Amino acid sequence: MAEAHQAVGFQFTVRPDGVELKLSQEVIKNIYLSGLTVWKKKAIQFKYLVKMFSGRRPLLYSFQASLPRLPVPRVDDTIRRYLESVRPLLDKEQYSQMETLANDFKESKASQLQRYLILKSWWATNYVSDWWEEFIYLRGRGPIMVNSNFYIMDLLYITPTHRQAARAGNIVHAMLQYRRKLERGEHAPLRALGTVPMCSTQMERMFNTTRIPGIETDVVQHLSDRKHLIVYHKGRFFQVWLYTGGRHLLPSELEMQFQRILNDTTEPQPGELKLAALTAGNRVPWAQARIKHFSHGVNKTSLDAIESAAFFLTLDDESQGYDGVKKNSLDSYAKSLLHGKCYDRWFDKSFTLISYPNGKMGVNVEHSWADAPIVGHMWEYVLATDCFHLCYSEEGHCKGDANRGLPFPTRLQWQISKECQDVIEASYLSAKKIADDVDFHGHLFTEFGKGLIKKCRTSPDAFIQLALQLAQFRDQGVFCLTYESSMTRMFRDGRTETVRSCTSEAVAFVRAMEDVSATNAQRLSLFQKAAEKHQNMYRLAMTGSGIDRHLFCLYIVSKYLGADSPFLNKVLSEPWRLSTSQTPQQQLNLVDINKFPKYVGAGGGFGPVADDGYGVSYIIVGENLITFHISSKFSSPNTDSYRFGQNIQRAMIDIQTLFTLEHDKKTPDCLQLQNGKKHI
Which residues are bridge partners to 497 per DSSP? Predict the structure, then answer.
């Protein structure tokens, strides 16, 4: 998702004094520390292994020790696949130059750099993930709002209650239930395709976690069980305790506490209103302000309360959500979740839960600690628990009685100087400039969905990726380097890998679609070849034979060794003008969406990756709906998110038409009657 933005042109500095021997020692030290972190994680997980043998039902970490290590691909294979991936994007001269750079690298520095990666893969359980977190996320000095954080929406069609405090009460209580099961390791193990075990370590830092700003690099602070929540409402910060008498607050008690906050009419203290803008702007000013203005007194006490909270909740004052009658409602909803007012979300928390006056909810997620499927797993559990287990009274309140004697939420206290207020305002203005530039469009594709695509004997993901290539070419008139996020969680501590979707086969298919002389049979044949190629690349990425993470790690080692590589510098600076990601759904299968078709999520999205490109997140919702979240920048004269959505719509239908027009040969398989009409 948003990782593609951070993965372009990043830089870092290694400052050991002396010669290559010292530099080599720096690499060895870094590799050693990577392994040390792994062993600490193993010690934490040992208690779960003890539980595993005490019962028959497998627990969350039951298969963790059996997961294989991520293999280090051969340099020759990676370079071959890389050159193949850029072939359709370069002319003969450009490709020849890149081929020369690649061969020079292979014959000079590659073997030395590769040896260090192999050494790291023996010592650490994953040769990529800790460097990926550090250099792609934590060392970035630019704003994380829009550029890194992502969002997840509520149910698309259903709002179980329109009472803001009640909905927040149920959702927060469901999150506490999820957290308790997570801390006890009681969630079922994650499995790909329902059978292959997947790594669960990212889930460990879901709660009680904050990204702490630093001058050169941030750190992720994760604490043990936290017993309070911080709530932001109309410029005020409140602390709410989540336990009473050794138990969680009931949904009705949480509703009562949140309603007390909504009823509070006190004014923000000086500097309090926009304080969270510090987390939305550049990291260095925030780190400096934190040291100077928040390291002592009431400011430190209040900041500690925020950073040590289970998570952060915003009680928003403007209604959002999808409204089929209201134009652009999904666009406004997405922008609210992605950046809000730039000062009403604590962008450093592992996630900010956002509650709207009409009962809608959503989540803004800090990206360094985990990827979207991890948060999606929690969100599925929470929404299902909210709607089908906790439920609401006829008046829309949380069920059950509340202890009216609970102490009121307490206001956090601040003494924010004029100097600090100036820093806050500067951060706010820089963040607002970024937010105002986000051109977002939410597009609901309802012509057909997964059901019809599968009857055409095609992978739904490959179908959509090829539609995106066709839409991109129609929108821009050129092909571009395309990023699709794939997971590597079948390996220990795995995160993501890149699938380079703009292949030679995809280009040939798109050109045939735009060639009026091409026959339907020719187009269909080229589509099938391109889809097969895409599926093969996706399999390679998932099984540790991708391109980009290997090259990224070779680049990191080259920087530690001071061994400059023109080839790696070139590769790591290439812009991803089309960045895409599929949001998984039904990871838990808690809701039968065939029986309850309105209880479907709207998915989530992320900000634009390139100044002149598009970010596209999509979710395949059941059999008959695909939701696209499209972002770009208003400042780019060549992009338009709504226009791109229309190009996706047309591309999807045009590809489906290939199957229905093939002289009726595949009509029984592919022609479907939907919404009372034939789609041809």
Answer: 486
C-alpha separations of 530 from 506, 524, 534, 675 in Å: 5, 10, 6, 30
CATH 3.40.50.970 assigned to domain 446-543+575-664? The reply is no
Catalytic residue among 187, 293, 367, 377: 367
Q: How far apart are CA 675 and CA 575, in angstroms?
A: 41
**292 token code pair:** 């100077």
173 is catalytic: no
Q: For 365, phi and psi rounded to 5 degrees?
A: -120, 130
If residue 230 lies in a helix (H) or strand (E), which one and from where to where? strand 228-233
Give residue 612's identity as a one-letter amino acid code. Answer: D
The Cα-based distances of 553 to 4, 22, 116 in angstroms read 15, 19, 10
Beta-strand pair 614-621/578-582: parallel
CATH of domain 132-437: 3.30.559.70
Q: Distance (Å, rounded) from C-alpha 49 to C-alpha 293?
A: 44
E strand or H helix at 626: strand 625-633
Do 172 and 372 meet the contact criterion of CB atoms below 8 Å apart? no
pTM, entire model: 0.92
Largest CA distance in the chain: 78
Comparing 455 with 469, the larger pLDDT belongs to 469
Whether 215 shows a pLDDT value over 70: the answer reads: yes
User: DSSP character for 209?
Assistant: E
User: How far lies 499's CA from each of 292, 465, 652, in Å?
Assistant: 44, 10, 20
Q: Which amino acid does the sequence have at 448?
A: F
Residue among 543, 535, 625 at smallest CA distance from 585: 625
Sign, CA dihedral 39-35-496-640, equals positive
The amino acid that residue 170 corresponds to is N
Token duo for residue 20: 């290559």
In this structure, what are the phi and psi dihedrals at residue 324, rounded to the nearest 5 degrees? Answer: -60, -20
CA atoms within 13 A on the CB side of 12: 25
Show Cβ contacts of residue 550 under 8 Å, excluding neighbours closer than 6 positions: 72, 73, 78, 117
- Alpha-carbon distance of 155 to 163, in angstroms, equals 16
> SS3 of 533, please?
helix
User: Tens digits of per-residue pLDDT, 216-255?
Assistant: 999 999 999 899 999 999 999 999 999 999 999 999 999 9
HSE-CB at 242 with a 13 A cutoff on CA atoms is 24
Q: What is the mean pLDDT of residues 564-587?
A: 94
Reference 262, options 359, 342, 387; nearest CA is 359
Left (φ > 0), alpha (ψ -120 to 50) or beta: where does 188 sit? beta
Q: Say how many C-beta atoms besides its own lie within 10 A of residue 349's C-beta.
A: 26
| Ramachandran sector of residue 339 (left: φ over 0; alpha: ψ -120 to 50; beta: rest) | alpha
Whether 398 and 390 have beta carbons less than 8 Å apart is answered as: yes
- Among residues 256, 258, 236, 249, the alpha carbon closest in space to that of 356 is found at 258
Which residues, other chains included, contact 323 with Cβ-Cβ below 8 Å and sequence gap of 6+?
329
**Runs of H (alpha helix) within 53-146:** 75-86, 92-107, 110-123, 129-131
Q: Positive or negative, the Cα torsion across 339, 342, 346, 349?
A: positive
Sorted by where each begins, the domain ranges of the chain are 132-437, 446-543+575-664
Using CA atoms, how far apart are residues 336 and 362, in angstroms rounded to an integer? 9
Q: Which amino acid belongs to residue 481?
A: L
Task: Determine how many CB atoms are found less than 10 A away from the CB of residue 14.
Answer: 14
User: 45 by DSSP, 3-state: which?
Assistant: helix
**CATH topology agreement for domains 132-437 and 446-543+575-664:** yes
- 536-558 pLDDT per residue, tens: 999 999 999 999 999 999 999 99
Question: 30-44, 361-375, 394-408: lowest mean pLDDT where?
Answer: 30-44
